[in-house]
Amino acid sequence: MMSLPAPCPTHDLIVVGAGPAGMAAAECAAGLGLSVALVDEQPRPGGQIYRATGASPLADASILGPDYQRGAALVEALSRHRIECFYNATVWQVTRDREIGLLVQGQTRLLQGRAIILATGAMERPVPIPGWTLPGVMTAGAGQILLKSAGLMPSASVVIAGSGPLLFLIAWQYVQAGVTIAAVVETTPHGNYLRALRHLGRALKANEYLRKGVALIAGLKRAGIPILRNARHLRAEAGADGRVARLHFRTGNRDRSIECGLLLLHQGVVPNTQITRALDCSHDWDALQRCWRPRVNEWGATDVPGLWVAGDGAGIAGARAAEHSGRLAALDAARLLDRIQPSERDEKAAPDKAALAHHGAVRPFLDTLYASAPDILVPSDDTILCRCEEVTAGDIRHFVALGCQGPNQAKIFGRSGMGPCQGRLCGLTVAEVIADARGVPMEEVGYYRIRPPIKPITLGQLADLDIPQEAAE
Prior knowledge:
Distance between the termini: 14 Å
Structural class: alpha/beta
Largest sheet: 7 strands, mixed
């Protein structure tokens, strides 16, 4: 970690991330009398799922669906408490002494907390296919962000390809907005449906999620949107202008091609673990969700003292579950800070624990159903994995043949993971390719070591900290 001067001021609790988990945690902690700071990169609370809630640029925000409106209630509850909020703030470092380095609208600041809750949520799983770096190819989440935050909608025809519930949600939202959708191309393997059936009984306990998915698909079919299933070997192709012009893929024994002006890709989401990795928290491999997650207890506490992870950053469970995990983390932080007794914590936590179990009932079914296909997890040789350094899957396999054992060695061989994104867009895929090439499990391959700064910061901005000479030495 970088050597920093003693930060000021000190808060009882700093919550990083103002999505559903972060808002619920901050509101709960402030209600218990803790002094709370809330930090988020966006200009207002809401996170990705409730982005721009209450300030939507859309003439009719109802096109985003009823779930989106829930964010307004969370924001309103947050506003009833005295919470110091830092919006437009980028976290570039968190230390084990609970010091946080921020860039707030370009200005460097330091915060000190007695406890920290990380509610940094999830990020979309990268979908490396040939041509995914072409102009006009982006993630479904990025398309949804443009719709929510700026009211921007594509004028060209859209193909939405991949797997996961968001695939159908963004398609439905686009249909409501009047966007032309050429097709939804689903990569979910047929075998996933059979494997998911054994979890259906438990999933029926949270059947509202199943009903919602069925309703979205039915709505798309009524709108005449083709849904092409069991697609594989996706490849984006450019037109004469260098932009994406069509998507090639294979279904059954048939090769197909669909023209499009915008291609949105999606393969579900994975926990955002950059900060927990930088803090050297213990992480476990989730074989079902095919991702790493920080090791936490029932309250979200990590093995780093005074640090909790709430929401999808601790494992994908959805927005409603994130609220409850945020409150559980806040209650445990208040217990640690002697604001409440363990018995009071347990009593207040009971409803949230019950709700968390309810919302979690559907996860094994969804995670099994929407598990990514092998050709997505382990792409072909000509597919770029590291966009920052233009390293292909073939390059990674060549490195393994030369003796590369894991992602950190891959940095030395070819700089993958050393660009501005610090491995966010390539880390999982690079590790999957190495594990496949070596014929070993992902646990043996591991993940990139993440070092500060977590997000880019200039030397001039660091100089603004005015670090005393004795601290620098």
